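Q: Entry one of two.
A:
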Amino acid sequence: MPKFASSTARVNVNSSANGSSEADVNTTSSIRPNPNSNPSMNTSASESARSIKSAMTTHNHESGSMAIQVIDRATRLLDALASASEPVSLKALSATTGLHPSTAHRILNDLVIARYVDRVENGVYQLGMRLLELGSLVRGRLNVREAALDAMQALHKLTGQTVNLSIQQGDEIVYVDRAWSERSGMQVVRAIGGRAPLHLTSTGKLFLSAADARQVRAYVTRTGLAGNTRNSLTSFEGLDRELALVRRLGYARDNEELEMGVRCIASGIRDDTGRLVAGLSISAPAERMQDGWVQQLVETARTISGGLGFEPGRSK
């Protein structure tokens, strides 16, 4: 009978952390045919090894496909629950997702165990608290400055002017970042960390326009609407008309109200709840400011808002 130096193919099956298996089939070095043996036996052994490798590859492929299918079905169930304002029955979920009731029930059970879904009563489900916990983590990691940096640089490159990112703190705005260069055509007036009154700045007007009448009147009382230039708004009536214009247009202007020779336009940045969290503004020498930049500014602010999870139609 013909002899082989190694009569079997070496197959190492290693389990990975995710539970899948990897097969290492060596059909060249492990199976060393005896030169004096029957060639047909050598061919048979090689074919056996290839069959094992093919079977393991098929198994891994099928396992991966099944896992993806389960994720897809679970996502469909979660989306169906998210679109409903009230708890949903198994029958309704099955009809909405197109899943067989037994399949939907099995996946829902796993989601209940993982706390992604709550079983309100027998056969009735709603989204679980685990999703809220994860959502809070994601929201906490979203940083308006980080979300804005690239977009600010792109807007500066497009306009050639200084682009500011500001937030509200009390009765003032605070400049938290800026994109500018020597070609911007003007010296930076307010350094990062600098402050300015709400009613004298384009971004400040955005925040005042989002406040109710009682809050605006309280601001006027606290600050007295002190002015910096002859263009500054120093009366409640003048400020009220300006804020109405801001609400109508969706963006705000500073017409040399903070500094003579400097004009600004600003658009709001909103978070995933629709709340106004920052203002994006372009500052330029008064004679260089262009109305054509408004649309580019608004679109950039919208892009940044989208990075924070904002969806149009949601505002607060």
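Q: Entry two of two.
A:
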Amino acid sequence: MFMNDLVVREFFLTWTTFSDEGHLISLMGFREAGMGDSAAVKSEETQKTQVDPATAERFIAEKRIGERIKRLRLKKSMGLVELGKHTGLSASFLSQLETGRVVPTLRNLSRIAMVFSKDLSYFFETEPNAVFRIHRSKERVRLPQTGVAIPTYYFESLGYMVPDRHMDPYFAEFIPLTNEMERKAHMHAGFEFLYMLDGELDIHHGDQACTLEAGDAVYFDASTPHSYQCAGKKPANAIIVTMHQAPQAQAFPARTVTQATRAESLSGKTL
């Protein structure tokens, strides 16, 4: 046989154990053994089906177990020594664990989880990405009021790039009224907040009406019909935030049924 038929390289592992406080796995080298071509091919195929050590390490690192433990500890204002007393682990090992230098066993991770009343799955669940979106002035789109021939205001969304958002912020410019303009009320689920930047603005909310000036703010139930109109000769600017929250059902006191209400009901009138 030729020499290349006899040689196959096989990696071997050394397992380093830190008492009961974790473990490290390292590739130490390889050895050669006499095997034929078929054995060499089989070994190569086996390696392709095995988990790559570097990939496994990256998978563990992405979970950021140490960072999660540190956040839990700091949230409880707990030092490493105190956490060690509760878990039976040394402060030095916990420090290495938080910095990612060692990987905990499930036994040790369960000890830490019990201290903070967490399930083991807490350390492996995917963490939501923090939302951070910038909306440049030059990138925004100016849109007119809808449902009218001549708009009384224009608005620009300040949160259009945020998916699944729980509120909608807008910059709104209210145009001074002309004879051709009409005030149109609208309503929607949730609540609304308006802060005046400059100018004057008349706002109608149900049976209520008021005039807002620069620096004034108003918060109201958006499920009640409401409308705005510029109250001055110059445009009024405001920041408006609508919150996606359905109004809670209101309990109304029981109404006494009288002869008059019975008559209204029988005649087809609504109560």
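A: Comment on entry two: The chain has three domains: 3-50, 63-123, 137-243. Residues 3-50 form one domain.
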